[in-house]
Amino acid sequence: MLAVYVDQFDPDEPLRGLRVAERPEPEPRTGWRTISVRAAALNHHDIWSLRGVGLAAERLPMILGCDAAGVDDGGNEVIVHAVVSSPDWRGDETLDPHRSLLSERHQGTLAQRVSVPARNVVPKPPSLSFEQAACLPTAYLTAYRMLFTRARVLPGQTILVQGAGGGLASALIALGAHAGARVWATSRSEAKRELARALGADAVFATGERLPERVDAVFDSVGAATWSHSLRALKPGGVLVTSGATSGDPTPAGLSRIFFLQLSVVGSTMGTRDELSQLTEFVVQHRIEPLIDRTLPLEEARDGFAAMLTGKLQGKVVFTV
Ligand SMILES: NC(=O)c1ccc[n+]([C@@H]2O[C@H](COP(=O)([O-])OP(=O)(O)OC[C@H]3O[C@@H](n4cnc5c(N)ncnc54)[C@H](OP(=O)(O)O)[C@@H]3O)[C@@H](O)[C@H]2O)c1
Prior knowledge:
Quinone Oxidoreductase, Chain A, domain 1, Rossmann fold, 2 domains, 7-stranded mixed β-sheet, globular, binds NADP nicotinamide-adenine-dinucleotide phosphate
């Protein structure tokens, strides 16, 4: 089958190890289902994998991709949940110390077919296209958990989203706005700030710009480039939810501000299968259309990866199969 995979790491030129070529079909496994992928979305996680971050060299070659929507072997339209926990794990899958994401230990979703544990699918609502549904399992699920499980954002609160144009950030803006929060967003680019407004942001700012007042919660996946601004943006007692470090680890950490203002710094990663179901309902009820920058056939996946590396994307890159 056709697949997009990594066969060598290159921390500086990640596309050097990217291949779009034939790979073996998934082996049938008891308790697992094979999904015929109709659409699969790209995430920054796939770039990290090409750089050798979070993926062990002995697992190469590895098919990339965490996100997919497709049809299972019973003919059901499904969305794949990318967090694979141990078979005997009960409760929040993201807290299983042995959990992995698809494409870390098990072959990923950027392929004609992917095999996942039977519990790792949720029904795809008919009102969502396969392309829209494929955006949900990583960026939108991570945003959902950051907002509602980790920060417990309430209607009327003011929140700040850093790096407005990314897949995760655009999901945070759309979900936060539909939940009744007052959403502020930053971006380095004027075009992406406009886009943030279109997604529901009430006000937009250049990266690092002074805000008119302090906010209840900040959502930061950028890391070093925005961290100190995120801390300065918070009211006393506010919460900073971090889920990524695209620009690297921040120094200094800003400890004195954190303890004097009694800020909470909260980590967040992906989400549970139950949260994926709740997110899917939320998206349908609020008629949210995940923001897609471009849709490409799987054969042209390299162009999508290259576009993500430019940092100019507005929303998700989706591959159709
Ligand atoms: N923990 C998890 O479960 C989880 C899940 C999803 C994503 N993530 C992480 O979250 C990050 C974003 O993922 P993504 O898929 O949304 O990536 P993406 O689509 O490539 O978006 C990256 C965004 O980061 C901002 N950015 C990058 N470098 C910046 C800099 N130097 N200064 C200011 N802003 C910068 C950009 O915002 P502007 O261009 O608008 O300024 C860009 O829109 C990645 O590090 C990813 O690994 C983690």
